[in-house]
Amino acid sequence: MEPENQTCVSEFILLGLSEQVLLQPLVFGLFLSMYLVTFVGNLLIILAIITDPHLHTPMYFFLSNLSFADICFTSTTVPKMLLNIQTQNKVITYAGCITQVYFFMLFGDLDNFLLTVMAYDQFVAICHPLHYMVIMNPWLCGLLLMASWIMTALQSLSQSLMVLRLSFCNDLEIPHFFCELNQLVQLASSDTFLNDVVMYLGTGFVGVLPLTVILFSYSKIVSSILRISSVEGKCKAFSTCGSHLSVVSLFYCTALGVYLSSAATQNFRASAVASVMYTVVTPMLNPFIYSLKNKDIKQALKKLFSQETFST
C-alpha cells in the first residue's frame, strides 16, 4: 500500500468564475476595482487610527487590526486570480495551492475572532462603562489579539497539514477562483474521512464558538440598553455598537449564504460566484460602514486628508 502523503501532481487548474473569453476583461476590471477599493479603504482606516491620538482606544485598536486582516484576506486570492486572467494561465502550483489555503483560512478566521473580541469590547463599554478602562487595559487587549493570532494560526496549520496527507491523481480542476479547502479535499483520490472530521471540528471551533460569544454579548448589550430610561441614551448606546453589528451581520450572513448555497446545489461554479460576497465584497464594504456611521473615524479621515493636502 502506497503512503497517503504522496501526491501525483505538481499543480492544479483554477477554473475561475467564468470560462467565457468575452467576460474575462469585465471580470478583471471588476475585481481589480474592488481590490483597490478594499486595499485603499482599509489602509486609510489604519492610517487614520494611527495618526489620531483620540482613536488610541481598545475599540479602534481592534478595528485597525481588522482592517489589516481584511487587506491580507483579500490579497490571498484576488491578485492570483487577476494574474491568471491577465496571463491566460489558470495553473497554480501544488505548493502555492497549499500556501493559499493556509493564509486564506488564517486571515478569514482572524476576521472572525477579531469580530468576537470587538463584540466583547462593546459589551464591556455598554454594560460596564464605569469599569471599561480598567477591564479593557492595554495588557488584556494585547493578550486578546495574541490569542486570536495563535488560535487562527494553529487552526489554519492543522487544516493545511491534513491536506498534505492526501493524494491527487485524477481530476485536478478546481471549480473556483482560489484553492478552497473543501473543494480541494473533494478532489483527493485517497481516503478523506479524517480530513472531513478535522474540517467539521475546525468549523465548530472558528464558526460556532465565536458566533455564540457574539450572540451572548449582544443579548447582554440589548438587555442593558432596554433598561436605559431616556430615548436619547438608548439611541446613543445603539449608535455605539451600530457599525460593529452591521459588519458582523454582513460577515455571517454572506458566509452562511455561501454555505447554504453550496449545500443546496452541486453547481460549484454558482457556489464560487456566491463566495465572492464574503471573500471580496465584505472586506471592501467594512471601511465604508465604519467611516459612514462613526463620527470619530470621519473626523480622523478629514484630519488625515488635510495633513496630506497641506504637506503637498
Main attributes?
312 residues, mainly alpha, 3-stranded mixed sheet, 3 strands, 76% helix, disordered N terminus
What is the strand and helix layout of this fold?
Elements: E1 11-14, H1 24-51, H2 58-75, H3 78-87, E2 91-93, H4 94-127, H5 132-135, H6 138-164, E3 173-174, H7 181-186, H8 193-226, H9 231-264, H10 268-293, H11 295-311
Parallel strand pairs: 1-3
Antiparallel strand pairs: 1-2
* CA(first)-CA(last) distance: 69 Å
- Beta-strand segment tally: 3
Overall structural class, as computed from helix and strand content, comes to mainly alpha
Q: What's the arrangement of strands in the largest beta sheet?
A: 2-1-3
Large-scale geometry: globular
- The percent range for helix content is over 70%
Contiguous runs where pLDDT drops below 50 for at least 5 residues:
1-5
Written account of the structure:
The chain has 312 residues and is mainly α. It is 76% helix and 3% strand. It is built from 11 helices and 3 strands. The protein has helices at 24-51, 58-75, 78-87, 94-127, 132-135, 138-164, 181-186, 193-226, 231-264, 268-293, 295-311; strands spanning 11-14, 91-93, 173-174. Strands 2-1-3 form a 3-stranded mixed β-sheet. α4 packs antiparallel against α6.
